[in-house]
Amino acid sequence: MTHAEVQARLRAYADGSLGEADAEVVRAHLASGCEECLRDVFTRPVALPRAPVVVQRPPQGWIAAALGGGVAIGLAIGLLAGGGHDPGPQSTLAANVEQLRVDRERTETEAQERLARLEAVLQDLQQRTAPNPLPRVAPPPCDPAPERASVPDWLQDLLSTPGARVLPLRPAEPAPGASGYAVWSPIRGVVVVSATALPVGLTDALYRVRVTMSDQSTVWLGDLPSPDGTLLVTVAMPEPKGRRVTGVDLFRDPPGAPALTATLRH
Questions:
Q1: Over the Cα atoms of the chain, what is R_g?
Q2: What domains are defined for the chain?
Q3: Helix (H) and strand (E) counts in the chain
Q4: Tell me: the pLDDT tens digits for 29-46?
Q5: Distance CA 38, CA 76 (A)
Q6: pTM assigned to the model
Q7: 9 neighbors 44 (Cβ within 8 angstroms)
Q8: Which range has the worst mean pLDDT, 155-159, 232-236, 248-252?
Q9: Segment 53-62 long-range contacts (CB within 8 Å, at least 24 positions apart)
Q10: Which of 51, 84, 169, 222 could form a disulfide with 260 if both were Cys (CB 3.0 to 4.6 A apart)?
Q11: C-alpha to C-alpha distance for 7 and 25, rounded to whole angstroms
């Protein structure tokens, strides 16, 4: 499937109406690191419009409880209005109750499918990067619940904040095989940079991260070792004062050559 054909299917992929075969092809294209398509998917609302990127399951049974309450109120109003003697309104009421039951089941199914599609997109992003190096606290031995193999907690947490953006990092000429991404959370005031397949030479190299703001000011974080070619670092940002992150660059020292770069278009 060509790049243009994938782009034509991104909207259907995001709202969940794309067939499974085409969805697999789109996920493979996103996992290859296409900046344009990744940006399109992560700025597009999934399924029906709602608050951006909130990964939370609704409490079990809330839909049934809400609709169940509505059905009970509708039954009471119908009995009071008709007096319970006219078989015509009773038939209509029974049909309405059945329709509400069908709508409730469909709403629950659609909510579960939308959450599953969002988790699939986040897993695609995780598969392009190295495993999360942040330590995970093992559950107590008495806890029988299995550990959930999913998107790292820190990434889910950042992506769930209002205004969070993902910037795919493109390899520069001195690092053709490198890849990575940056996550900017305006609410948290941080930029997290993750990189893999960085050049590993005969001597250890250090890396520097530069974050560029919309007013051309920059924030640097340096002396970052990467003996195995991977890097995960958090850059604390100053008070925004109306400024936005417009670019992220990763440099190798020595010789100060660029390794990865990204530009955020608003």
A1: 25
A2: 156-263 (2.60.40)
A3: 6, 8
A4: 888 888 888 888 777 665
A5: 51
A6: 0.43
A7: no
A8: 155-159
A9: 53/118, 53/159, 53/160, 53/164, 54/160, 55/115, 55/118, 55/119, 55/122, 55/156, 55/159, 55/160, 56/160, 57/115, 58/111
A10: 169
A11: 11
